[in-house]
Amino acid sequence: MLQTRLDLDRIRASRDAIDPVFLATPLYRCDALGGQLGCTVSIKLETANPVRSFKARGTELATSRLADQGVAAVVCASAGNLGQALGWSGRRRGLDVTVAASCFAPTVKLDRIRSVGAHLELVDGDFEMARERAVTIAQQRGVRLVEDSLDIETCEGAATIGLELVSGVSAGDAVLVALGGGAMATGVGHVLKALAPGVEVVCVQPVGAPAMTLSWRERRVVTTDSTHTIADGVAGRYPIPVVLDDLLQVIDDAVLVREASIVTGMRLLLEHAGLVVEPSAALGIAAILEDPDRFAGRHVVTIICGGNVDLDAYRRWVGW
Amino acid sequence: MLQTRLDLDRIRASRDAIDPVFLATPLYRCDALGGQLGCTVSIKLETANPVRSFKARGTELATSRLADQGVAAVVCASAGNLGQALGWSGRRRGLDVTVAASCFAPTVKLDRIRSVGAHLELVDGDFEMARERAVTIAQQRGVRLVEDSLDIETCEGAATIGLELVSGVSAGDAVLVALGGGAMATGVGHVLKALAPGVEVVCVQPVGAPAMTLSWRERRVVTTDSTHTIADGVAGRYPIPVVLDDLLQVIDDAVLVREASIVTGMRLLLEHAGLVVEPSAALGIAAILEDPDRFAGRHVVTIICGGNVDLDAYRRWVGW
């Protein structure tokens, strides 16, 4: 019996609060990509929606509950995608949304946060500094803080991906999940362990931003002093203890991948699946590239979690 | 009362024969793209499936009915996408599939037709020559011919896109449909005229492959001697009379667009929607680019019908 903060009935019910445009996303086999990787590859595509990432599953749920409670203003820290999703969801529910973000976040993400009507507060530091700023804003202005991975709605929203995966996976399959703060990993992991326990859930993090993976391996919070990765969406340094507790129950492994593998993963997704993705969304393919024997001949599902990427940087990375 | 070859109840029922991986595709607003075009743009994405085009909706239906009839072998002519889809659908139902195609079709399309297990017969001529070859093969070998746009299943399959659009459109909106042989246009058009008659259905064809548009305008079949377009998926010269008859009832307009607009459309879809599409899938955006006043301020839905494109050519076209 899983003892995480998540609950299957609650996850199932949460779908009613989420705009259908974010649900029932494509899940399909991509043989051209699988042929390159020596295994059967299925793609769970989370980029074909108005905010181009899975994050709105969680922000739809969070803002729905906050609006029900009469909350008028919210703030979050974001590497870029959560802020855009919270802005989108909040605007539709009349919430005033403020997003604290690193000034080093991709320009396209910052622009899109503004374009959905959120107030953007730039921080001269990394994502962890933005988290501190969001806490300060919440305290000083008396607005509600939405914290990714800690607020249960962000995990429950991501967990709805797991519900959609269950019918497409079977024992022996592996699901690759990008690991950052842990909302997607705990959410998807919880559902799979509950409903399809024979499926291996493998989290993937860049070697340049390994805090949660190191924490999972040592079964205690391990922080790092800095991050060095192009995968801006998963570059945290301070894992949240209760999220780690959940993660320890629901995933089978956490692996670290090199930057070169992430780049190759992005290029393979472009050339063999026709998908332009942000670096975090290529972590799964990177994991296959780094350990082909592990996945050889198996059916591997990779969640393409986001497509918000600066195109100039993208072209440079993939060599186009 | 519409008097086409299509029937709404039959279209609704046809969904049961189609693998769900091809149904309920994403339909979402893309504000970044709309901002570039001066209107609200929604994308109906038909590329996130195993064959990367809408064509499998029709081939699923066709092969399902043929298998029920005990048919063992089929042949079709294809510009590339139908053949891939027929191969995919046929293989799953134990059908032997032969595809006649132009040797000038994009290599990626020919490769993928082979990769799904179909026999490929290359013709030293254009798509119309491939159509002739398919007829000959059917006669000589006694195998069943599946003819795009003429076989009602290809239209009914495409019409299921229309069913999925109905809930997302309202009076005054416009739906842009790539026009080739006419299966998608008659299918989607029939459903929209039946269920959402206030929605404008606009077909878009390249000025370099205008046969069906000219036919629609003159209300009689007009053929052309040649085609000159990068939009290989819609480059026919001999419209089918009964398809034209249907088209005359269900669409509001047919417009022709220039090659430069198609290329710009592809680039905008890449840069503002993160989508790598084949030229035919950019026809709708090209139509907006060529007549922005017509669509200004309106909600325009464009069907992204295929993503099978040779990447070297693509890079050259979009200037990447």
UniProtKB/TrEMBL annotation, chains A, B:
Residue ranges annotated as transmembrane are none
**GO biological process terms, semicolon-separated:** isoleucine biosynthetic process; L-serine catabolic process; L-threonine catabolic process
Q: Which cofactor does it need?
A: pyridoxal 5'-phosphate
Query: Source organism's superkingdom?
Result: Bacteria
Q: Where is the Tryptophan synthase beta chain-like PALP domain?
A: 23-306
Q: Does Membrane count among this protein's keywords?
A: no
Entry keywords, A to Z = Lyase, Pyridoxal phosphate
Q: Write out the GO MF terms.
A: L-serine ammonia-lyase activity; threonine deaminase activity
What is the protein's given name? Threonine dehydratase
| Chain's gene name | ilvA_2
